[in-house]
Amino acid sequence: MNKIKGAALRYRIMAWATGVVLGALTIWLIIGYGFMNYANTDVKPGLYRLLWTAHGWLYFIYLIVGVDLAFRMRYSILRTLGILVAGTVPFMSFVAEYFVHKDVMTRVAAQPADPA
Length: 116
Hints:
The protein is mainly alpha-helical. It has helices at residues 2-34, 46-73, 77-85, 92-110. It has one domain (13-108).
């Protein structure tokens, strides 16, 4: 059970990190293109580009951690794909993390304690 808890914690951290960066980028995108007129210029802040790169790497780690958790929890392919795609939709990684965390805690509570 400790391996599942560890995988769930890693997934939870990566879901939040990926979600926060993607959420910030989405808000920045709306403000930048809607109000600051980034569409008509080639100049974008360096931090904006850096955050997109960071999101790419964070999402890659999110995929690895999500697949690890899905294997440990024995999720179906569709559920696994849903969890993995949630990292590409703004704010959906928070929703996926909520339901995965709830499922993990339910399964952990249902297991008898290890005599050690």
